Amino acid sequence: MKATPNLELATTCINRARGILGGKIDLPAVHYDGDRTGIHLSDLTSCPASAYYQKILGKDVPPNSDTNILHFVKGRGLERFFAEEQEGIIVDDISCTADGFYPEHGYLEIKTTAEQMDFFDPLTAHPEWIERILGYCTAYNQTYWNLVVFFLVGNMPNRLWWNIKEFGKSTEPYVGIALKAWRLSFSEAEITENWDMILVRKLKLEACIKNNTPPSKEWIDNVVQEWQHKICRFKNTCIYLHKNDGNYEPLNCHWITQSENTIKSNKKRGEKNG
Ligand code: SF4
């Protein structure tokens, strides 16, 4: 696994945004699938409980809060300025959609962050990004993928004491906003090993949905960071947050109870009509 800075790609992305703002490039209309169906690669590289709730609850899913929407727009809204989302493809019943493709650079994944920038290591900062990118490599049959990171507050966080304590003092001049890109290259073994893990997670998630049993605490702890719970649309009802003793009895969860009641009443209705 290797990361090579790709300054040209960062420039290409910024030039695309420049073209859009200058009226030379059209920003394509985007339609998001409100009723997300099937299993997506992102379901298997982020919180499995979130994916589980979405599948179990269907239309009963709690609405996104204003904060959730702002986080969503911050990521998805900005991405479209830097690259054009690609046609999704389905591999092993898993939906995968690349954030962009430039013929001279290849495929890319775009992320936004307010993290420290000067010591940012694209290979270790976010294991879930790498899992997702390795998954795309399988889906799109690639051995490399580009990672573009929009540092929303530049290297300002490098001046914060907790980052100085962890990373040392940066000697870089202050910048308030920045875009960086890397080309990430992988071995065939790394790509295969990651996809095997993704397939195991898919089977586990499918079993959770089928049995109406939330994913295990161990699984969640392995892939979810503390801050993600705080901005999650399920935080008010998630049994993981409200049952830290690891009690995953579905009846403890309001939303699942509601869903179970729906299943029961549908069954009754079916029996009555059938
Ligand atoms: S609150 Fe946390 S564990 Fe629960 S669904 Fe959201 S991110 Fe996952």
Write a concise keyword list for the protein shown above.
274 residues; alpha/beta; Lambda Exonuclease, Chain A; five-stranded mixed β-sheet; 10 helices; 8 strands; binds iron/sulfur cluster
Number of helices: 10
Helix percentage range = 40-55%
Shape: globular
Q: Can you identify the CATH class?
A: Alpha Beta
Instruction: Tell me about the largest β-sheet.
Output: 5 strands, mixed
Derived from helix and strand composition plus strand pairing, the structural class reads alpha/beta
Side by side, the strands of the main sheet go 1-8-7-6-5
Explain briefly what this protein structure is:
This protein is α/β, with parallel strands linked by helices and 274 residues long. The chain has ten helices and eight strands.
Task: Reconstruct the topology from this structure.
Blueprint: E1 2-5, H1 7-21, E2 39-40, H2 48-57, H3 66-82, E3 89-91, E4 94-96, E5 100-102, E6 106-113, H4 127-139, E7 144-151, H5 161-167, E8 178-185, H6 188-211, H7 217-223, H8 226-230, H9 239-242, H10 254-273
Parallel strand pairs: 2-4, 6-7
Antiparallel strand pairs: 1-8, 3-4, 5-6, 7-8
The structure holds iron/sulfur cluster.
